[in-house]
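[audit] Reproducing an earlier prediction to check determinism. Same input, same settings, fresh worker. If the tokens differ from the archived copy the diff job will pick it up downstream; this log only records the rerun itself.
[audit] input (256 residues):
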Amino acid sequence: MIYGSQLFRLNLPVNPRQNRFFYPIYGQMQIGGRIRFLHFTRLFQPNTGKFRLLDFGCGNGNYGFVIAAKNPRARIDSYDSDQSKFPLLRQLKSKPDNLHFLSRKEFSLLPPRSYDYILCIDVLEHIEDDVGTLQHLTDLLKPGGVLFIHLPKNHRKRRSVLKNTVHEKHADHLRDEYTESEIRDLFGEIDSLNLQKLLYTFGFWGELAWEIDNLLVRHCSRLRYLLFPAVWVMAWIDSRMDNRWGNGFFMIACKD
């Protein structure tokens, strides 16, 4: 079903009105999250069904649920510094047996070279020491392991599709997001990590989907439910195009 992928159909607290009438069809209506996930699913092609993966800064743990369900022989660990939702997530009937939510102590005791893959989706902009965090994630990768990172573009340098669209810095971002040169400098700080791909996300179609959805949220939430399938299609197109520009960056890096 194109409208409600498993990623956004978890049994988590959502708007009661949406949950009652639209959640069974759409799932959680987070178009920004959909765009990031659609790009990830196109890029993530594991060579084998048996691997270890860490979702660092997992939030609601959505990625882990989907990856674990599709790869039952893999070990999927999810970690977030905000663990307030973990008790609920651990009790969900839909949680695969191979999905684990790490406590802070468990994360701190992880040995080097633990993982074949690590995800870090829109996390580093929330962390003061982004270089130290990137180095730690690199240490947790096995040799030849792959790191998937998504980062937002500096809000002052973002392009808009519709007139009068304003991009503001999020209150919980500890820096003005990133430029492409800053990202390359960041990866250049880590000797054993090679940046293999840098792709643009939230290009024309993704940005248009995001802007339309935000307008509908602010001014006409009922119409949003009717137009969400069209907005989703725009997001899907964005993930399948080789965008020449974008307001987000998806990076793939490999450890020596």
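[audit] rerun output stored. Observation attached for the diff report: The longest strand covers residues 141-152.
[audit] end
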